Amino acid sequence: MALFVTTVLCVVFASFAILCQVYLLPLLTVLGTFRTVQTFGLDAAACTRIPELQACEKIVLVRPSGLLYLACSTPESRLAWTPGMNQLNAEERSSDDYIATYDSTTSKVARLRLEDFDSDQPISVHGMDVVSSASNASELFVYMINHRAPSGQDPRKVGADSVIEVFKATVSENRLFHIKTVRDPTIVSPNDIAGLADGKGFYFTNDHGSKAVYDSMIQNPWSATTSVGYCHIDHGCEIVASGLPSSNGILKASSNDTIYVSSSFGGKITVFQKREDNSLSLMDVISIDQVLDNLSIDNEDRLWVAAFPRARDIKELLSKDLDHATPVAAFRISSNIGPSSNGEKYKVEKVLEDDGTIVSGSTSVAYDSDRNLLFMHGIVARQLTVCRI
Ligand SMILES: *[C@@H]1O[C@H](CO)[C@@H](O)[C@H](O)[C@H]1NC(C)=O
Ligand SMILES: *[C@@H]1O[C@H](CO)[C@@H](O)[C@H](O)[C@H]1NC(C)=O
Ligand SMILES: CC(=O)N[C@H]1CO[C@H](CO)[C@@H](O)[C@@H]1O
């Protein structure tokens, strides 16, 4: 009998140890529960703040102009209306969301006017991509997630009526011409978008598996219910990758068909290759082991990703205190080719970390390698931060 009890206890204990090893420790590592935040890589004297641009969740640097495109709102209204974070109070959302450009050489901010945009509600911006047109170098396409409120229904019960807007712009004008609103059952809980240069096709992430109301921001990080969809404005939409954990930022390389998807609570970046028929094949997974956010690529083909060293700070920021000093980190990932490569396919470097003093709560970073400028902004941040590094 004693032997039996001992055996049972051992089995229980061993199962618990395996559970810890396989699930709990990796999760606590990604969440940064025991992490000490370092401070390096940024010099406060080399940073400028632009408070005119607030709550710009998603910034996109366009080359060769070096113009930064930003999708902005107000910090307070983001706390009321951000469907992916279960904030579904449509009455309190901003009616003044906008898309702006920032020119780092002149420090000039310009709000872009929406032309031909016939909607019965104001735009509610979130993920965005800005792509030079393949057929005309002086034209751009802007792809934008728009979280509309459902008409006549309670968003707390049915979720948001999220759509994707496609606009066309010229490089020199402060106007966006609306081309199409794409609404489709596959666009469930869209977060970020990667557009193609034809102005017709785009990939997007769904950050949840359903529109239904989720109970917490960090809801079940082990369940893999998020997905990537592809749409063509003339031919409709389909899901091209599913069963992914907490998908967030998405980015397409401009020179080839590689697509990167960041998994925020998975702490990793999944690398896909777009096939001829627009489906995706899985190529690689790059582990970073921190809570990750949006992705960007610089002029030297290096990938940049914003990260949160400690998840509890971002939770505090996004649920209670808009001015909570929230540590920030940025990683740079390059292909590891050449004599120094040690068999690892990707070189992952942490470029900076800050405790929230110089920069706080950044959800998006973009690096201008022609001008050595790093742009950082966040979904509820009170300013754009630009640092020379
Ligand atoms: C390219 O776009 C610009 C701006 O819309 C337009 O003025 C010009 O005619 C276009 N060029 C061609 C070759 O279509
Ligand atoms: C595609 O482009 C990216 C960034 O420009 C580069 O890092 C990557 O190695 C390229 N992938 C392939 C398969 O050529
Ligand atoms: C975790 C997180 O906030 N990720 C952000 C990445 O960017 C998308 C789109 O811009 C945002 O929706 C996400 O909030």
UniProtKB/TrEMBL annotation:
Residues 183-309 form the SMP-30/Gluconolactonase/LRE-like region domain. Pfam families: SGL. This is SMP-30/Gluconolactonase/LRE-like region domain-containing protein.
